[in-house]
Amino acid sequence: MARPRSADWAEADRAAGEYAAGYVEDGMTVGLGSGTTIYWTLRKLAERVAAGLRMRGIPTSLKTERLAREWGIPLAEFSECPGLDLYLDGAKEIDGNKAMIKGGGGSFFREKLIAEGASRRIIVINAGKRVERLGAIPVPVEIVKFGWEWTMERLRGLSCEPVLRSGGDSAFESDNGNYVVDCSFGLLRDPAELHRRIKEMTGVVDTGLFVGLADEVVIGGQRGIEVWL
């Protein structure tokens, strides 16, 4: 079967994103993720809010917050909400156990924090994001600026090639003002164990490995929408 063109993936993103907006019910507090697929979720939620849907969103990124405010989606502070009804977000890769790599935009620490506070977590992707094993793309790691060179050397000790993410003329900064290091490990044997080993390092804030944080997956593809429970 021929690999779908990028335009096909864009349409799959839109279909999956709009479908996922249908999970939001009146009165819900919802964690709002980020990325190309969730962009369409936000657009559809804005339409539903304009038509009378009552909801509160907790944005996981500064970009999502800006879009939600621009489109009229009501927002609340995470600290104001003892529990979220729902969390909607995308992923860069997801395997058969629903483990994921996230973090292309640098907001993965906030995404993980909010995902852990939600009763139900739905990941929204196009079918091209499904993989047998994670690791075709680098694993993002958020690190504090102080001593960042030393932290990178420790990451290199885990048999990876760490690269400080560039933000143009200077290093890229996460939404929390930290650096992000993209670590190429190759295909991962045990994402949970790798996350544990990285997270134990002083200087590391968190990793873009998400394990046990997907209850359902909405997948847009050539045959329409598939829901993976």
Task: Give a short overview.
The chain has 229 residues and is α/β, with parallel strands linked by helices.
Q: Would you mind describing this structure in some detail?
A:
The chain has two domains: 6-131 and 211-228, 3-Layer(aba) Sandwich (Rossmann fold), CATH 3.40.50; 139-206, Alpha-Beta Plaits (2-Layer Sandwich), CATH 3.30.70.260. It has six helices and 13 strands. The chain has helices at residues 6-20, 36-50, 62-71, 108-116, 148-156, 191-199; strands spanning 28-32, 55-59, 86-89, 93-94, 100-101, 121-126, 139-143, 161-164, 179-184, 204-207, 209-210, 216-221, 224-228. The strands form three sheets. It has a six-stranded mixed β-sheet. The chain has a four-stranded antiparallel β-sheet with strand order 8-9-7-10, with helices on one face. Helix 1 packs across helix 2 (36-50) and helix 2 (36-50) runs parallel beside helix 3 (62-71). The radius of gyration is 17 Å and the shape is globular. The mean pLDDT is 95.
Provide key terms for this protein.
Ribose5P_isomerase_type_A, 6-stranded mixed β-sheet, EC 5.3.1.6, 2 domains, ribose-5-phosphate isomerase activity, Rossmann fold, isomerase, Alpha-Beta Plaits, alpha/beta, Ribose5P_isomerase_typA_subgr
SSE inventory with pairings:
Elements: H1 6-20, E1 28-32, H2 36-50, E2 55-59, H3 62-71, E3 86-89, E4 93-94, E5 100-101, H4 108-116, E6 121-126, E7 139-143, H5 148-156, E8 161-164, E9 179-184, H6 191-199, E10 204-207, E11 209-210, E12 216-221, E13 224-228
Helix pairs in contact: 1-2, 2-3
GO molecular function: ribose-5-phosphate isomerase activity
Keywords: Isomerase
EC number: 5.3.1.6
